[in-house]
Amino acid sequence: MPVGTAATVKAMSPDAVAATGAEIILGNTYHLMLRPTAERIAQLGGLHKFMNWPWPILTDSGGYQVMSLAKLRRIDADGVTFQSHIDGSRHRLTPARAMEIQGMLGSDITMVLDECTAFPATEEAAAASMRLSMRWALSSKEAFKASAGYALFGIVQGGIYPELRAESVRTLVDIGFDGYAIGGLAVGEGQDLMLSTLDFTVPLMPTEQPRYLMGVGKPSDLVEAVSRGVDMFDCVLPTRSGRNGQAFTRRGTVNIRNARHADDPRPLDRRCACPTCGHYSRAYLHHLTKSREILGAMLLTWHNLQYYQDLTAMMRTAILGGTFSQFRRAFMEQETEEPLLS
């Protein structure tokens, strides 16, 4: 899912996002409740109409942003009180309020309010955080107004501790959700710890509902997580990297700012069908990025989103064809960056 935090996928129009093959995007409760407010979006017809995106939208409940962005916050058993990072105004976010906000936005997939456990955290601290999130998950389910075509996902927490992750999964399954997310990863633990946590968490999760790894990640993260049974992802990496001169290709990552690209007439990726690769050279993209032209960010973002959609499409094809293990091996053996012109 491309990330459209504040009702926009940065540097992209909705039509351009859809052209990459994306069928669902992510919005964020925390940012939208502060600006322009969920009430205003509801008055204007809901988030889909507001941002001209007629396809599904998943909204993150805002718990992670409260913990990472709020100037001041106080957590209690029923929710969190915090000051906006924008203007210092005071707000209260509870499970019921998170459900209300996402309902006003018209989210197709609503996420429960949770506390994203910090890393590193002791097992005792991770246990307390996870159990608070489980309390909030139950409250979220009780407050959620279920209707046909709309879903509510629970979020598994528990840090890097197998017993805590198992307890979290059991609790969420007992409550009952339409899908199950894995939270609390990609917060500084590194790929090895993330994958080892998936190794003992994913097999415990139901196979009948989607399994969603939140906030991940690099292309290799996606391939490795899919090999472990994860179905859904979101991450700011393709858009953020595009704005910072980094492109993902089938031959590895390209830093278009590097001087080696200044005279290179080739496209970023010969096998990519995006407009960036079809019409613009690496030399031109290098010039745009070095000149800090807005078009550079737009073209690189378009390419990166196309690359991620192509990657997931290739994984789906490999799974259906029974060749995923071969795909995974070939992907991991690819070079880190395409060689210089000979």
What is the percentage of strand-forming residues? 5-15%
What is the CA-based Rg, rounded? 21 Å
The structure class reads alpha/beta
What's the architecture of the largest domain, going by CATH? Alpha-Beta Barrel
Kindly list the characteristics that best describe this protein.
2 domains, 342 residues, alpha/beta, three-stranded antiparallel sheet, TIM Barrel
Structure description:
With 342 residues, this protein is of the alpha/beta class. The chain folds into two domains: 14-234, Queuine tRNA-ribosyltransferase-like (TIM Barrel), CATH 3.20.20.105; 240-332, no CATH class. The chain is 45% helix and 14% strand. The protein contains 15 helices and twelve strands. The protein has helices at 14-19, 29-34, 38-43, 47-51, 63-69, 95-105, 123-143, 162-175, 191-201, 219-227, 237-243, 275-279, 282-290, 294-321, 324-332; strands spanning 25-28, 57-60, 73-76, 79-83, 90-93, 109-111, 151-156, 179-182, 211-213, 232-233, 246-249, 252-255. The chain has a seven-stranded parallel β-sheet with strand order 1-2-6-7-8-9-10. A three-stranded antiparallel β-sheet has the order 3-4-5. Strands 11-12 form a two-stranded antiparallel ribbon. Helix 10 packs parallel to helix 14. The longest helix has 28 residues, at 294-321. The chain is globular. The mean pLDDT is 95.
